[in-house]
Design brief:
Layout (H helix, E strand, L loop, with lengths): L5 H6 L21 H21 L17 E4 L2 E4 L2 E2 L4 E2 L4 E4 L7 H17 L3 H34 L1
């Protein structure tokens, strides 16, 4: 009877060991204005593509929603909200478009999105995104200070 070293055999097929499973904290990558602009531009491109392909306006709103974060179905049409991040934090006021049997403003929305894409790349949202970036940094500093204060309070209680 021949004995087989299972670990050697398994390693040929791409298995790993327990040391590979250890998870450390993710490396911090600082957000920059150009990253934020790229996010807005990408989301606008996704919204444009989805709007061009969408044909569910004859269905109830709950059954035919947009997947793009910048477009929302509303009664009688849709709303375009230009924003940043996964929560789509608003950069400008939303714009509503009518889609009904009497009017179809989808043809107006697509050129607007094209214009917003061009303007976003030319710096239209730079001031608003800089404000968001500054608020993110302030919020992170406040969180760091709060964690440090809590840690000092715990140490003071432990010393008593």
């Amino acid at each position: 009877m021949q004995t087989i070293n299972f670990t050697t055999l398994a390693s040929k097929y791409g298995t790993f060991n327990k040391d590979d499973l250890k998870i450390g904290s993710a490396e911090y990558v600082r957000k920059t204005l150009s990253d934020m602009i790229a996010d807005v531009v990408e989301a606008l491109q996704i919204a444009k593509a989805e709007l061009q392909e969408f044909d569910g306006f004859n269905l109830p709103i709950k059954n035919a929603q947009f997947k793009a974060r910048m477009i929302t179905r509303i009664r009688g049409g849709f709303k375009l909200t230009v924003g940043y991040g996964t929560r789509n934090e608003r950069l400008v006021n939303p714009v509503s478009f009518i889609v009904s049997s009497k009017a179809d403003q989808r043809q107006n929305a697509i050129p607007l999105i094209d214009a917003l894409l061009t303007e976003a790349q030319n710096g239209m949202f730079n001031d608003a995104l800089n404000e968001k970036l500054a608020s993110y940094r302030d919020r992170a500093e406040k969180g760091k200070a709060a964690r440090k204060a809590e840690q000092n309070a715990q140490l003071a209680m432990a010393a008593e």
